[in-house]
Amino acid sequence: MVGTMEEATRIPGYFKNKGILITGSTGFLGKILVEKILRVQPDVKRIYLPVRAPDTESAKKRVETEVIGKELFGLLRETHGKRFQSFVEEKVVPLAGDIIHENFGVEGAQLSQMTQEINVIVNGAATTNFYERYDVALDVNVMGVKHMCQLARQCPNLEVVLHVSTAYVVGERQGLIMERPFKQGETLREDDAQLRLDVDAELRLARECQRQLAADDAEQKNERKAMKELGLARAREFGWPNTYVFTKAMGEMTLARELAAGDGPAVVIVRPSIITSIQRDPLPGWIEGTRTIDAILIGYAKQNLSCFLADLDLTMDVIPGDMVVNAMMAAAASHASSSSSPPPPDQQPTVYHATSSLRNPAPYAVLYRTGIRYFEAHPRVGPGGRPVRTRRVHFFATVAAFTAYMVVRYRLPLELLRLLNLLCCGLLSRLCAELGRKYAFVMRLVDLYGPFALFRGVFDDANVERLRMGMDDGDRVEFNFDPKTVDWDDYFYKVHIPGVMKYYGCGHS
C-alpha cells in the first residue's frame, strides 16, 4: 500500500529541519539528489555524505571536488553568491567512511550525533559493473545494504529508508513486470521450483573461493578473473544475466529481511531503468558515468561502431536522472512515518518502478533517427577543418543474424589479414591491430548491452502513478516524474545527445 502525503505538507516542507544520510553521493544520481535537496529546501538540517577516504580532511576534499564542485551546482552557487561556501559547510557533512564496513567506519561522537539526527537514509551506493568480481559486488551491493540496515536500527528518529536498486533485477523476464519485492530465496529459474537462493551461503562461498585463490601462489595472478567468472556463473545458475543485477536482487532481499516492517522506519525501493541525462533542472543534458545507451552513441560519434545487436522496434526503457530523483524525494516524503500510518508488522518494502516503458515507450528507433539527425546537423570536423562523413550503423534484430554478419565482415577478414601479415613479415601489423580493435569493441558492447537491447519486458508503474496522483499540484510540477510529459525525439535531439557529446569529450572540433 502506498502512503499519501498530508495535505498541508509539500515535499520541500517535509525535508525542512531533517537530517539525511546519502550513500553513493559521488555517483550520478547522488549528486542530483544532493543538489535538489539543497536547492528546494535550504532549511534542511544536515546532509551526511559518507565517501571512501582515509580521513575527514580527505573526505571533505573529495566531496568538494567530486560533488559540490561540479557544474551541476552552478544554479545553487548563483543563488547563494558569496554565501555559497558557508552554506554548504553548514549543511553538508562529509564522512570518511565506506559502506563495506560496520557503521560505514564512522565511530565515537560523530556516530552518536549522526544517529540521533538522521531522519532519512537514502542508499544509492553500488557497484554497477556488470561483470564485477563476485566478492567485490557482494561487499558493496549486499553487505553494504546489511551495514546500512544495522546503522538504521541505531537511529531513534529515523522515518524512512529509501534503497536505490535497478529495474533489471528482474533479469530477462518478458511481459508486464509488477512492482513487487523479491521473496526470500526467490530465483528467476522458473524451470526449477526447488532451487532456493541463500544469500548467506553465497557470501560464504565468495569468501571461501577468494581465500583459496589468495592462498594458492599459482592461482594468485588469476584471482581477479576467477572471481569475475564465479560471479557470472552464480548469477546464471539462479537465472540472472550478470553479476550486477544478481547482487542487486540479493541486496533487495537483504533489505527486506533486515528491516522487516513493524515499529521501524518505512522501507522503500526505487528501481530505475536506463537513466539518462537531466531533462529539465538544474542543467539540461548534464550527465556523468557512461549510461548503457551512451556507449552506443559515443561509438557512433567516434565511428568505432559499424553494427550493433538491437531490434529497433523494441522499447529502450529510459528515464531522465532528474525524474528519478524527483520520484525518490516524493516517495521518501510520502512514506515517512511522520506523514503516514504505521505499516503492519508483515508489510514488505514498497517498490517503485522509475521507468517509461508502460506509459510512454521509446523504441530504439528514436535513438537511431535522432542520432542520424544530430550528426548530420552537427558533423564532426577532421584534420583540415573538413566535415567527417558519419556512416550509418547496421542493426540486427537477432543474435544469429548479428553473429553471421560479424563473422563475414570482421572475423574472416581479420584471420586472413593476420595470415598475410605473417607472410609479409609484420608489414600489416598496424592494420591488423586496428581491425582487431574494432571487432573487440563491437563484441564487448554487445556482450555488455545486448541483453538490454533485446529486453522484452514492460515495467508496470501503478505504485508510481498513485504516488504522483497523491501529490500537491505544485509538487507535481516541481518534482515531475511523469514519463508522458517527455517528447522523446525532442529530448534526445536537443538535450541528451548534445549532453553526451559535451560531457564525454566527443565534441565536433
From TrEMBL:
<feature type="domain" description="Fatty acyl-CoA reductase C-terminal">
    <location>
        <begin position="410"/>
        <end position="504"/>
    </location>
</feature>
<keyword id="KW-0444">Lipid biosynthesis</keyword>
<dbReference type="Pfam" id="PF03015">
    <property type="entry name" value="Sterile"/>
</dbReference>
<dbReference type="InterPro" id="IPR033640">
    <property type="entry name" value="FAR_C"/>
</dbReference>
<dbReference type="GO" id="GO:0006629">
    <property type="term" value="P:lipid metabolic process"/>
</dbReference>
<dbReference type="GO" id="GO:0102965">
    <property type="term" value="F:alcohol-forming long-chain fatty acyl-CoA reductase activity"/>
</dbReference>
<comment type="similarity">
    <text>Belongs to the fatty acyl-CoA reductase family.</text>
</comment>
<dbReference type="InterPro" id="IPR036291">
    <property type="entry name" value="NAD(P)-bd_dom_sf"/>
</dbReference>
<dbReference type="InterPro" id="IPR026055">
    <property type="entry name" value="FAR"/>
</dbReference>
<comment type="function">
    <text>Catalyzes the reduction of fatty acyl-CoA to fatty alcohols.</text>
</comment>
<dbReference type="InterPro" id="IPR013120">
    <property type="entry name" value="FAR_NAD-bd"/>
</dbReference>
<dbReference type="Pfam" id="PF07993">
    <property type="entry name" value="NAD_binding_4"/>
</dbReference>
<keyword id="KW-0560">Oxidoreductase</keyword>
<keyword id="KW-0521">NADP</keyword>
<protein>
    <recommendedName>
        <fullName>Fatty acyl-CoA reductase</fullName>
        <ecNumber>1.2.1.84</ecNumber>
    </recommendedName>
</protein>
<keyword id="KW-0443">Lipid metabolism</keyword>
<feature type="domain" description="Thioester reductase (TE)">
    <location>
        <begin position="22"/>
        <end position="328"/>
    </location>
</feature>
